[in-house]
Each structure stands twice: as structure tokens, then as C-alpha cells.
Amino acid sequence: MGTTVAVGYDGSGPSMPALQRAADHTAASHAVLRIICAWIRPLFPAGRGSFAEAVLGDSDPGYGADLHPWSRYVALGDSFTEGVGDPEPRSPGGLRGWADRVAEELSKGHPGFVYANLAVRGLRLEQILNQQTGPALALQPDLITLSAGGNDMAFRGSDPDKLAAKLDAGVELLSSTGATLVLFTGPDWGATPLLGRNRARVAIFNEHIRTIAMLHKATIADLWALRQLKDPRMWDPDRLHLSPLGHHTVAMMVLESLHVPHTLQPLQPGGLPERNWRQTRAGDLVWARQYLIPWALRRLGPHAAEKELRAKRPEAEPVVGADMPAGALTAGYSP
After folding, report:
1. Residue 292 pLDDT more than 80?
2. 143: which of 6, 40, 70, 105 fits an S-S bond (Cβ 3.0–4.6 Å)?
3. N- to C-terminal Cα distance for the chain?
4. d(CA 119, CA 234)
């Protein structure tokens, strides 16, 4: 990538202003080239080293600041983003989750990288936008993830068109910051008892989300298309939240949606024992008695969520702590 350098007035060589402009241009070009390489490199996993060496003159680029442009990540949402279903005593709030796992990967090679997670379980879309948008903007993020509407769609029977109008307004405000914005589609709950009855509304809402993402130049993290979530071991026994394996899988999908190389590896759980129809229905009844009915009663009771309304990471802080190895699975979990 050549640079033309002006010759000085005396014809003897380049002038100082021209040299400075040339240096600035070269530095900017190199920075742009590195960002382009960061986006292209995942397409060449087998030749990553030789690709980097040929283009960047670097035989071992590793995972560092040149592989993505972000330094301040803020996650907004509900229990999905909070990390419910992925317990980790060493993490803030005792939960890890996909957002923590994404932040761990993004922090590698970025000494100044910070992360905040404002998500609170049980919140509906309008509550998320009203309560979390202001604090998020105050943190001046350059990367935002937003997952909202799951509680509205699954448990409130909300109109997806009206819900999308509220989401569009919120996304417009968040995208006005210039930050990279990631939006999530809802998962396909078609095979889940009771929740499956909302499948058509979720599908309609997902189409709205894709349209909103296109209008505001946001990235889509497509849970509906993530076929791995069909496996019941991706879910907590309550069938409402992801398991540690599910959070790990979603973290991989988010990083790949952002075209960021990462160290997370696909994990394949062992085979499920076959069950007949009667055993499956009996399992559904046990699930409803142990999880669904108590959950519904808690939500219907007065002041059910008061003690939960606290974000686990309200401030933007460095990610890895308490000697937790970034990218590791929750201790004691074996797929």
C-alpha cells in the first residue's frame, strides 16, 4: 500500500509537513488494514498464521488489541444476559453467563478493556429500556449488547408489533452513540410445553428485530437459528434459562457474529437416553410442578422481584478476577 510523498520547495527532498502527512497516512492505513484482517481472519482458520505473516508481517499475532476495536462493553437485558442458569461463586452476583464469557474473550490482549452488565432478571422490554439505557449511555460504551422482550413474549402474550415499536425507539437512541450494537432474536421454543404456544408471536417479533437491526446498522445474534439450542442439555432444568453449556454456546455465537477470533471450543454433550412418550410427558409434569408453577406464583405475588432488581456489574470494570481463567467452563461442570 504505497504512499506518495511531496518534494520540498528546493527539490532536495520531502518537506516536513509532507513527511508528517505521509506518516499519518501510513499509520492510519496500517490501522485500517489490521481491522480488515481481524474481520477476514476467521474465514481462514487453517492458515491464520501464514495469513497474518503475509499481510501484517507477524507470524504469531495471538489474541490482542489488533483483533477488535472495542474497549468498553456494556450488556443490557434480563435473566438471559444476567447469566441465570450459569452459577459461578467467583463471578459478581454469583453468576457468569454468556456476556461474561464474551467479555473475557474480548479482554484478552486489551489491558484497558472494561465491561459492565446492567441486566436484571424478570424485566420486560420497556423496563429494560427505561432503567438501563441511561446508565449504559453514562458509561460511554463502544460495544452494546441488548436482549429484551423475552419475558414479554413468553409470559405476557404481548403484541409483537407494539413491542417492536418500543424496541425501535430504544435502539435508535443507543445506536446514536456510534457504538457497535448487537441485538438478539428470540429462541425457538416450539418443543417446550406451554412456551411453545407463543412460537408464532416470537417469530414475528424476530422479523421486526431483524428489520430494526438493518435500519440501525446493528449486528444480529440469531438465537432462533442456533440449532444447538434444540438440545435439552443447553437448558437449565427449569427450561426457562440456559445451562452453563448453553451460555458457552451462545458466547461463541456472539463472538462469531462480531467476527472476533476466540479461544472457546465447541462442546458436545454425551448422548441422551431414549424416552418413550409416557416418560416424556411425566417429565413435563414434574417440570411444571417443580419449576413453572412456583415461578408463576412468585411473579404474581406482591413485590416478587424487589430484591432482584440490582445489576451484578453496574460499573465498567476489568473483566477477569478471582483467578478465574478466561474462557473456562464453570467449575464442576462436565458436558
Report:
1. no
2. 70
3. 48
4. 21
